[in-house]
């Protein structure tokens, strides 16, 4: 879900040149040039060794999103070193805080409104600071405006136009901080006939073709097992934010990023969309785990579970035939070319599965090992999380949570030769960093902060 519960967005802080070197294109500073020094971030003094390990160190992001697409975007930025300030409702917090079970139980003896930290919330909120803030009043809005002046990026996922009444729309905040990158994540974008609709992953999967092509050949349409439209929208928004930051490096100017689930889902149709555009014909429908134009290339039943194999050219098909002790199938006139194998798909799939059902998945994995043919067990989630390759690639990391103790999280997936994106802090407790943010960024003293708490503006 991505646009029903939307919150305020984050923005890019101005690119700052050193003293005496104003920025080209920055209002009031026309005709001057950058001095070439690092001016990408609000935080000017960042150690180069830190930037080498965390490329976005010094970038500050105001995260006014919740649920999945927006938080996934800001988590990516946080993994790469950006400082993420997550704005949450002071009592409810991010909607996903209540989306348990399962929950990681609290073990610190402190009574809270939730039974623990929900697994859903934990999945997309590491490397962030939580500020519990209500902005339905002038004081809360002023706090956000003050933070915006000190941020580089703002990410929000409110319905289009709904932030204007809080003076948190792009037109307003870009005057406060012209170099702000303001990313809006919505279901259907800022324009178009559906722009006022709330965005839910499953609805966009249905509306924009993905559900239609997902499922068994003769079965009903189904959604993908994970909210892939939300996740890819989060990734596209992170990419757009990085591009806008890169442009700001030379122009000093921020911009508004309009990222929608609907657009991203259409883009993710990839070759399927291209086939429709080229042919002008109706698509070929659902194929389950099979491929529309390559046979054999799918998951088959074994004696105990399932295995995916790919004889996706004549050579690989021949290897499969040899490995399942059916070399005569290589010269069978029904199967000698891929075009013929596609034509006789039902027959070939049936006889391959009949053979594969004679042994267990483990036995077939041992048989296919080193053959050069693509193959894989169809693992469940625990099988994946405990997979030897997943563990060897350090995709599961244990961190220490202040209230839940040891906690395992899925790690950042991309490896670099120099950079080291990592889990620097666990997903925050609701309002865990309220005092820190107000004190260190806005110079509020203890009495000021307590007054805000007494008035229920912050928590």
Automatic annotation (TrEMBL):
**Recorded GO terms, molecular function?**
succinate-hydroxymethylglutarate CoA-transferase activity
Domain of life of the source: Eukaryota
Q: InterPro entries of this UniProt entry?
A: CoA-transferase_III_domain, CoA-Trfase_fam_III, CoA-Trfase_III_dom3_sf, CoA-Trfase_III_dom_1_sf
User: What cellular-component terms does GO give this entry?
Assistant: mitochondrion
Protein name, per record: CoA-transferase family III domain-containing protein
Homology family: Belongs to the CoA-transferase III family.
UniProt entry keywords in alphabetical sequence: Transferase
Q: Does the keyword Transferase apply?
A: yes
Q: Origin organism of this chain?
A: Lophiotrema nucula
């Amino acid at each position: 879900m991505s646009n029903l519960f939307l919150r305020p967005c984050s923005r890019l802080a101005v690119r700052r040149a050193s003293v005496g070197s104003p920025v080209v294109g920055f209002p009031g500073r026309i005709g001057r040039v950058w001095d070439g020094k690092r001016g990408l971030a609000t935080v000017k003094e960042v150690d180069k060794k830190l930037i080498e390990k965390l490329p976005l160190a010094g970038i500050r992001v105001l995260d006014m999103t919740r649920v999945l697409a927006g938080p996934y975007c800001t988590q990516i930025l946080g993994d790469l070193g950006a400082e993420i300030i997550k704005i949450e409702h002071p009592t409810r917090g991010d909607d996903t805080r209540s989306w348990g079970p399962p929950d990681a139980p609290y073990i610190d003896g402190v009574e809270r409104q939730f039974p623990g930290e929900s697994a859903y919330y934990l999945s997309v909120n590491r490397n962030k600071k939580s500020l519990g803030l209500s902005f339905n009043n002038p004081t809360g809005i002023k706090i956000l405006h003050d933070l915006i002046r000190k941020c580089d990026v703002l990410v929000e996922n409110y319905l289009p136009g709904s932030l204007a009444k809080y003076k948190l729309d792009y037109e307003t905040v870009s005057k406060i901080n012209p170099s702000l990158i303001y990313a809006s994540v919505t279901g259907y974008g800022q324009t178009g006939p559906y722009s006022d609709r709330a965005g839910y992953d499953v609805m966009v999967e249905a509306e924009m073709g993905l559900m239609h092509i997902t499922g068994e050949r003769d079965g009903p349409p189904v959604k993908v097992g994970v909210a892939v439209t939300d996740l890819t929208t989060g990734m596209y928004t992170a990419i757009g934010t990085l591009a806008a930051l890169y442009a700001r490096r030379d122009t000093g100017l921020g911009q508004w990023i309009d990222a929608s689930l609907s657009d991203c889902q259409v883009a993710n149709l990839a070759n399927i969309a291209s086939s429709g555009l080229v042919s002008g014909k109706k698509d070929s429908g659902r194929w389950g785990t099979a491929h529309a134009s390559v046979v054999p290339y799918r998951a088959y039943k074994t004696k105990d579970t399932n295995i995916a194999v790919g004889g996706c050219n004549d050579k690989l098909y021949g290897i499969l035939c040899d490995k399942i002790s059916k070399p005569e199938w290589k010269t069978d006139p029904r199967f000698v070319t891929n075009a013929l194998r596609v034509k006789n798909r039902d027959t070939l799939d049936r006889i391959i599965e009949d053979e594969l059902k004679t042994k267990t998945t483990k036995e077939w994995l041992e048989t296919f090992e080193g053959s050069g043919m693509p193959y894989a067990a169809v693992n469940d989630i625990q099988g994946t999380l405990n997979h030897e390759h997943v563990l060897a690639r350090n995709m599961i990391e244990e961190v220490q949570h202040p209230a839940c103790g040891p906690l395992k999280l899925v790690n950042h997936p991309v490896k670099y030769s120099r950079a080291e994106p990592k889990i620097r802090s666990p997903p925050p407790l609701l309002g865990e960093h309220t005092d820190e943010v107000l004190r260190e960024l806005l110079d509020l003293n203890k009495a000021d902060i307590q007054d805000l708490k007494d008035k229920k503006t912050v928590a």
